[in-house]
């Protein structure tokens, strides 16, 4: 444990983040909004705080193995709290708890909101919310990996702590800095293409850029209270579906396809095939339920069913209708699909499809062992055997996930007088970084009590950092190093 260098790195990252506050300040100046003062003050506070943490400790440069976990956790917490400053100052009478909830919901790409009346809010504030999600999508830590080596600080420890998925050590290029750059080139390119398609589909430039930020980040924030339903456009919804699907695929695979100029690599990947199959099954079932019941809350069973299936299952959280009012099991199926989420190495939340696939294969292996007790049945993904250590790690993650989910659900019900459906869906939506839930949190989280919101904030962080990055910090062995 090397606390001086940990606080120094946190200060560096906070200083870098302060620069992003200048973009909404510039937008406020362009539109003549009073929030320019808000963002300038927030910039000054964040910058000065970052410099005070960085400059006194600038001579400490050795980041030790394992320290990246604490750096990552500290940075997300500090960025979320400092990021709440402009939100708290911009919205009259907004409690700091709500501002922190909104900020961390954006940063973790959860998309759960406590704000209403978005259509009348300053454009600079709306842009800022989307920007938080965009940086949180790929992970601002990965961006920092490209900067830290120039400051004499190695970045691999941070990359292992932040990058999602069961296998943490795979690098796309020989140098971690080049890996971070490759990821961001792909991320920025997808965002630009998404914004262009939205604009051509009928959005304004402002809405196109903002929704591209949250689509590629799989965040779900919108500049309108009705979310994607505001536009009522099948073209815009089609664009969203395509880019939500792409953002839910491993960005390392995007890199491979780009480097080898061969899109067939997508369909050779077992996780992607399972991911697409899962989405197809969920969409088909939801469409069938809507068609069978002829529900009036849905404009078209195929259009709404397909869009919501992709949006919820990828943990994006855009809505075209209040799916919590849909008949039968449709809302529950959508919520459960979000537990699987997208592919490892994507911007999606959830358990990740690769883990679900490995759990299924392990369960099927146990069935075959019961039938053939002396048989040897290695688990393979394609033709590649999966090491038992990976299987153990997947089961450990799943066990921790289920226990934490159940404990948080009970805790939320103890802290507030809310029903089981609301508590279950709120914790599930935040732990999976989804956003919209069922019951009282179908539209927003404003009505929840402050203690419940802090529990859900912690759930967002656990989900974004995939549980063990946080759990390792509560282990006494970590602090005795």
Give me the secondary-structure topology.
Elements: H1 3-18, H2 22-31, H3 35-54, H4 67-90, H5 96-107, H6 123-138, H7 140-145, H8 156-162, H9 176-201, H10 205-216, H11 234-247, H12 251-260, H13 264-268, H14 270-293, H15 301-313, H16 330-340, H17 353-371, E1 380-381, E2 384-385, H18 388-415, H19 420-431, H20 450-464, H21 468-471, H22 476-479
Antiparallel strand pairs: 1-2
Summarize the helix and strand pattern as letters.
HHHHHHHHHHHHHHHHHEEHHHHH
Largest sheet, described in full?
Answer: 2 strands, antiparallel
Measured by DSSP, the beta-strand proportion falls in: under 5%
Please state the average pLDDT score.
87
Please bin the fraction of helical residues.
55-70%
What is the count of β-strands? Answer: 2
Low-confidence stretches: none
**Category by helix and strand content:** mainly alpha
Across the major sheet, the strand order is 1-2
Helix count? 22
Tertiary shape: globular
Query: What is the CA-CA span between the terminal residues?
Result: 6 Å
Q: In angstroms, what is the radius of gyration?
A: 22 Å
Overview of the structural elements:
- The structure is a single chain.
- The longest helix is centred in the last third of the chain and has 28 residues, at 388-415.
- The radius of gyration is 22 Å and the shape is globular.
- It has 22 helices and two strands.
- It is mostly helical and 481 residues long.
- The chain has helices at residues 3-18, 22-31, 35-54, 67-90, 96-107, 123-138, 140-145, 156-162, 176-201, 205-216, 234-247, 251-260, 264-268, 270-293, 301-313, 330-340, 353-371, 388-415, 420-431, 450-464, 468-471, 476-479, and strands at residues 380-381, 384-385.
- It has a domain at 388-479.
- Helix content is 64%, strand content 1%.
